[in-house]
Amino acid sequence: MTEELFRNDSYLTSCEATVTGVSGQGVVLDRTVFYPVGGGQPGDRGTLALADGSALEVVGTYKDRETGDHVHVLADGVSAPKVGDAVTAEIDWERRHRLMRMHTALHLLCAVVDGGVTGGQVGGEKSRLDFDLPDTSLDKEHIEAELNRLIGENHPVGFSSITEDELDAQPELVRTMSVKPPSGRGSVRVIDVDGVDLQPCGGTHVRETGEIGRVRVGKIENKGKHNRRINVHLEE
Question: 3-class DSSP state for residue 59?
Fold first, then answer.
């Protein structure tokens, strides 16, 4: 199982690692700073630098559900390193940081909109959450103002773990209706936006809400009888 360095520090941009497996264009490392696609957040991109100075482009990352290994997908035509090779894994930090800002902004959106979450997607240009709100009229200007208020208040953002029994005793912490936190590990990672939002999440986040910067609420779409989609953009 790949050691997930990003879980404890979302601001790590690189690490030294050893290749433990290669399959086609996929490279497995013993440790990584690359976040794998999941929870609505895209997998990281970046490079694997070899001892000879060459750099291999990584176009995506995913987690093998059976082994727990993180697979770093190389660009087409790039020759994979060999098992045992030492590499420096480095993420595309600008892209990752935008995703961190967006992901934290969606947690604020959960605090502003009172409804179960039926779906979502984190993106660098646009992110969205779908809410189960069949009979609710949403005020776009109000939502945008509340998001920017919470951002401007610069709430600390931290993480911790609770036991699965503790989570079972607090079902209100789980906002997603169709996807439940992974079980069977004994503990669940939770993200705490101090005084604003607390919920299970394995994604990467900024340290303080002020780091998000101003956001703009885009279209609010009707996606079915029980789905209202709220789109959020970074305003810059």
Answer: strand
